[in-house]
From TrEMBL, chains A, B:
<dbReference type="GO" id="GO:0004340">
    <property type="term" value="F:glucokinase activity"/>
</dbReference>
<keyword id="KW-0547">Nucleotide-binding</keyword>
<dbReference type="InterPro" id="IPR000600">
    <property type="entry name" value="ROK"/>
</dbReference>
<dbReference type="InterPro" id="IPR043129">
    <property type="entry name" value="ATPase_NBD"/>
</dbReference>
<comment type="similarity">
    <text>Belongs to the ROK (NagC/XylR) family.</text>
</comment>
<keyword id="KW-0067">ATP-binding</keyword>
<dbReference type="GO" id="GO:0005524">
    <property type="term" value="F:ATP binding"/>
</dbReference>
<dbReference type="GO" id="GO:0006096">
    <property type="term" value="P:glycolytic process"/>
</dbReference>
<keyword id="KW-0808">Transferase</keyword>
<keyword id="KW-0418">Kinase</keyword>
<dbReference type="InterPro" id="IPR004654">
    <property type="entry name" value="ROK_glcA"/>
</dbReference>
<dbReference type="GO" id="GO:0005737">
    <property type="term" value="C:cytoplasm"/>
</dbReference>
<protein>
    <recommendedName>
        <fullName>Glucokinase</fullName>
        <ecNumber>2.7.1.2</ecNumber>
    </recommendedName>
</protein>
<dbReference type="InterPro" id="IPR049874">
    <property type="entry name" value="ROK_cs"/>
</dbReference>
<dbReference type="Pfam" id="PF00480">
    <property type="entry name" value="ROK"/>
</dbReference>
Length: 308, 308
């Protein structure tokens, strides 16, 4: 009972994070269910709906107490058509009509967005973005993801490919080959995989990025050069985003950002080196704050602003 | 009489272009007056108002027949406060309250924007952008200017420094020094000045960019390398903008773009090389169409959308 709430889902390859939130973005309840990728992912919608209604019941409320549901999903989203493409991890065919199917199953308005964009909205609203409407998020994980928020809303671009920050070219000549088919993408040098790539190019080997950071801490000169180079490329990409969009904050998250100041201190210097002075005046680099909750908080924000 | 019209000004260092337009963006009448930079540019507003009213009278209409007036001015604009900063060419102090002063003088609603952003809006609305809401404009002149349009509106950023495409860093190491204080900005290698810079770095000398293009046409190998390199850097910047914003069109204008296919053909190849495949699927590179009218047409668009 009481105040109306927002619903949120963050659909991933192994689990679906779900939550109810207040219209201020406070989490009322959160839970997750496994992602059933069998049969081309066709059971996912009904699983979400069943779980959603069970949890509503536990709170003694019904769908009528929910304003709308925001959903983040992997792969480029077409928020107008309500479809998701390229969600190969989940098994959905291109143009899967997620919005329509969930609206039928939940009997509620549903709004969808790419999952990295939802995370960016979450950090903008209740995380490191601190409500600033112009925020760029960069997530350094196995790959590099991103989201661009301008005046409080995601920039989706023409076919949902905006915010592909991991595919900004930072090594235009003789760069490593990227999964996308291009060469020299930010992802090839600033993700966990990229850091190992750079270390290999130094003629050394490490099982993972964490090991490279550990060796740098122990004084390994090659590992130190790799981290400086990673900060250099990341600073170049962020500086050029700032020259284009003039945001208030760039929020850096994901596993690699957990390395902390050893990466973020040189990053700040490089961002300053590559950013137009007037844009630099108002820019700050922040560490992401919401961790795994960013996605559901951003999805709830989407549900909120789309129903205003 | 008849249909209501839009007013538009494009304030430059030597002249102020003015126009009346229909709400569809057709120019009813256009004219220009010299820019009086004496006394810190303090006569400009009254000159605009006098000229504007004289021209209205010639058409047998009054201010009541004007919906609103859009104004482009050099230097970063704060559209909310209605102020212009850094218009050193004109003599205005930082934070010059152009909107307020013009509204008092014209007794009409006035909306202001940076001049390069107005030109981008003009090309988006009635030029090479052809009404596509997601358009990036790059103007290659003495410097390199730009404007970013998303969903039909300019992205201004936090303090009006968005769209500083000329200051995207494309030579992160050992680049030429730029007027902005940074090194390796796009402007240092892709403007008219930049092309001469690159030619000098080849150990050759030319009085202007036009001469470099002429020598390339005559088979000068250094001049050909310079043009290829200019296209490479421009393609890198445009590709990375596309990876960030996923626009439908990138519109290239300004004097240097008049060189035509000798620059634009390699540019297209480099844009393809540096753009994420999904973003490339929907992207086209277009030559600007409106020439010197882009500014007033975009200013009129601004006046139109701000009063809807």
């Amino acid at each position: 009972m009481g105040e109306k709430r927002l619903g949120a889902c963050d659909i991933g390859g192994t689990s679906i994070k779900m939550a109810f939130l207040t219209t201020e973005g406070d989490i009322i309840r959160k839970w997750s269910i496994p992602t059933d990728r069998s049969e081309g992912g066709l059971n996912i919608v009904s699983h979400i709906a069943r779980s959603f209604n069970e949890e509503l019941e536990q709170d003694g409320v019904t769908a009528a107490d929910v304003i709308a549901v925001g959903v983040g999903a992997p792969g480029p989203a077409d928020p107008v058509e309500g479809t998701i493409s390229g969600a190969v991890n989940i098994g959905w065919e291109n143009g899967y009509p997620l919005k329509k199917l969930l609206e039928e199953a939940l009997e509620l308005p549903v709004f969808i967005e790419n999952d990295a964009n939802c995370a960016a909205l979450g950090e903008m609203w209740r995380g490191a973005g601190n409500g600033a409407g112009d925020v760029v998020c960069v997530t350094l994980g196995t790959g590099v993801g991103g989201g661009v928020v301008s005046k409080g809303m995601i920039i989706t671009g023409v076919n949902g490919a905006a915010g592909e920050i991991g595919h900004i070219t930072v090594v235009p000549e003789n760069g490593f080959l990227c999964n996308c088919g291009k060469k020299g993408c930010l992802e090839t040098v600033a993700s966990a995989t990229g850091i190992v790539n750079l270390y290999k190019a130094e003629g050394k080997d490490a099982p993972d990025a964490r090991t490279v950071f550990e060796r740098a801490a122990e004084g390994d000169a090659a590992a130190k050069r790799v981290i400086d180079r990673c900060a250099f490329y990341l600073g170049l990409a962020i500086g050029n985003i700032a020259n284009t969009l003039n945001p208030a904050k760039v929020v850096v998250g994901g596993g690699v950002s957990e390395a902390g100041d050893v990466l973020l201190a040189p990053l700040e210097q490089y961002v300053r080196q590559f950013t137009f002075p007037r844009a630099m005046d108002v820019l700050s680099i922040e560490k992401a704050k919401l961790g795994n909750d960013a996605g559901v908080i951003g999805a709830a924000y989407l549900a909120k602003v789309m129903t205003v």
